[in-house]
Design a protein that fits this description.
mainly alpha; elongated; mitochondrion; transmembrane; MICOS complex subunit MIC13; 118 residues; 3 helices
């Protein structure tokens, strides 16, 4: 009986977390236009480090542990939109060339086998 209750609780917890993630992605429009995704990433970069610091301080106060201060994360200028587009262009160009390359490699393979058999 206890294992069934525990399984049900695990299912409910996992379902709640998954539902929360889906709602957050929809609410923040993370799957929408890239400029909105980039704005959400910038908001997260501003909010998450102070929240992690406050949580660390809370844990230190509650447990009496001393957590060493971590260095600040490096700042870098990374445009998701540009790298996404270049990645898509690279993949699409590779896919468009794939049939002709496969034909070319097949011909080379047959020629190699014909030479080896002689």
């Amino acid at each position: 009986m206890v294992s069934r209750v525990w399984s049900l609780m695990r299912f409910l917890i996992k379902g709640s977390v998954a539902g929360g993630v889906v709602f957050l992605v929809y609410d923040q429009e993370l799957l929408g236009p890239s400029h909105k995704s980039q704005a959400a990433l910038q908001r997260a970069e501003e909010v998450v480090p102070p929240a992690m610091y406050q949580f660390g301080q809370y844990v230190c106060e509650q447990t009496g542990l001393k957590i060493p201060q971590l260095p600040a994360p490096p700042k870098f200028n990374f445009h998701i939109r540009e790298s996404w587009n270049s990645g898509i262009i690279t993949v699409m160009s590779a896919l468009s060339v794939a049939p002709s390359k496969a034909c070319e490699y097949t011909k080379e393979g047959w020629e190699y086998l014909k030479e080896r058999i002689k």
